[in-house]
Amino acid sequence: MDYSDYPQKGELPGTKIDSGLRDGAVRPKNFLTILPAVNIDTTQANNTQGNYRHRQTLMNLGPTLIPAIIYLLIFTNTVQGGVIRTVFTCDTTDNRQLSVAKNDKKIFYSFGRKDHLPDLKLETSVRDAKISLGNVSGNEVSNSIVFNNGGYRYVVFSTADRNADNQVLRHGVLIHRRSTYLGYKKCVPDTVTGSLLDLVE
Questions:
Q1: pLDDT tens-digit map of 5-20
Q2: What's 54-114 look like in SS3?
Q3: How many CA atoms lie within 13 A of 165 on its CB side?
């Protein structure tokens, strides 16, 4: 497929996915058992003795809270399948950030404004991922991965003219709704890091 002739379009429809957990993080199953049960007597909160008891209880929780917080911070960058690492990322010409990441089990796609929570997050299993590397169409050679979201299809790609003396890569994401092409989000070349080739190791 020749990606070079796709026009730019405006904002595109899509379904926002928000599980409440960021970057593929999962809440530990034993989260509630990390902290010991503590009974706090709130009936005397307005007198000196009651306030002292509350302060003392919170102080006693300190040694337990510290390892619990560290444990949760570790889990924010992991899901079942190991640590998530970014494979490909870029800024698009409409001031959004596109990212593809993976671990041993899943591949993740995110898109949205920089320094904000993503507008769209999708994932696919490594086993079921639709990855195409070294695909040739005319003069173009491309690498791509497809993410599905209901009737929408997002194709993250990198492509170049294989016959050109000076290889200039182009990157972006194509958006389709079923069989209808909706538009193309183009990466700013200087912001591209990583490679879709790293999807397969």
A1: 544 444 444 433 333 4
A2: HHHHHHHHHHHHHHHHHHHHHHCCEECCEECEEEEEEEECCCEEEEEEECCCEEEEEEEEC
A3: 0
Domains along the chain with CATH numbers: 14-79 (no CATH), 82-199 (2.40.128)
In which residue are the tokens 């409409």 written?
Answer: 94
Q: What angle do CA 12, 159, 198 make, to 5 degrees?
A: 95
Rounded distance between C-alpha atoms, residue 76 and residue 73, angstroms: 5
Both structure tokens of 176: 């389709």
pLDDT digit string (tens) for 62-107?
Answer: 555 555 554 445 444 445 668 999 999 999 999 999 999 999 999 9
- Residue 123 vs residues 58, 102, 155: alpha-carbon distances, Å: 40, 9, 13
